[in-house]
From TrEMBL, chains A, B:
InterPro entries in UniProt: ArsR-like_HTH, HTH_HxlR, WH-like_DNA-bd_sf, WH_DNA-bd_sf
UniProt entry tagged with the keyword Ribonucleoprotein: no
The organism's place on the tree of life at top rank: Bacteria
Gene3D superfamilies named in the record: Winged helix-like DNA-binding domain superfamily/Winged helix DNA-binding domain (1.10.10.10)
Keywords assigned by UniProt, alphabetized: DNA-binding, Transcription, Transcription regulation
Pfam families: HxlR
Record bears the keyword Secreted: no
Species of origin: Mesorhizobium caraganae
SUPFAM superfamilies per UniProt: Winged helix' DNA-binding domain (SSF46785)
HTH hxlR-type domain: residues covered: 1-91
Signal sequence bounds: none
Name used for this protein in its record: Helix-turn-helix transcriptional regulator
Length: 109, 109
């Protein structure tokens, strides 16, 4: 379930508060309407998002995080902070390893 | 990089301290020698694991987490705790949603 990029992005977007479908779509550049609906269905089914329908004309539908969803959003924020802080270190180590390998190959020539 | 199940499991196993290849293989049931070597190479290249070779006969090779690796292990532990605490809630919500859907279908018959 957590494997989907859109699950991650929808949960993060909803941290700002309840939102309508169109608002979500605007915030999530690149998501197709079908994918957004599908992601919201999954999140609702899994108890992470609550859907509220207002009986107005035309009907207004809003989505918000449940407590569990907010909790997941907190974890995702931690993962993002970790990545922002440490992924550069990983990339640096990788570049260094590749440079060393290159140097070894050169030395063998 | 984080996508691999084995990366996750090797990092978690090394939390206990430095380990030899064989010890790691025993802890990680189901990993093939090739996959273990490959995972350790990736982790070493990315600066998460340090390899130490002892000049004895036969040579002894040990692996341990770097500071960055320990840091990642901390994050992975948080993710695991979150999952252990909340995945049952998600499964429950999912089961409830499926039961409701079933009931709706029955009502329509």
């Amino acid at each position: 379930m957590l494997a989907s990029k859109w699950v991650y992005l929808v949960v993060c977007a909803l941290r700002r508060g309840r939102m309508r479908n169109g608002e979500l779509a605007r915030r999530l550049e690149g998501i197709t309407p079908k994918m957004l609906t599908q992601t919201l269905r999954i999140l609702e089914r899994d108890g992470l998002v609550r859907r509220e329908i207002f009986p107005v004309i035309p009907p207004r539908v809003e989505y918000e995080l449940t407590e569990l969803g907010q909790n997941l959003a907190g974890l995702l924020t931690q993962i993002r902070s970790w990545s922002e802080e440490h992924v550069p270190d990983i990339k640096q180590a990788r570049a260094r390893a590749e440079a060393n390998q290159e140097a070894e190959l050169q030395a063998q020539v």
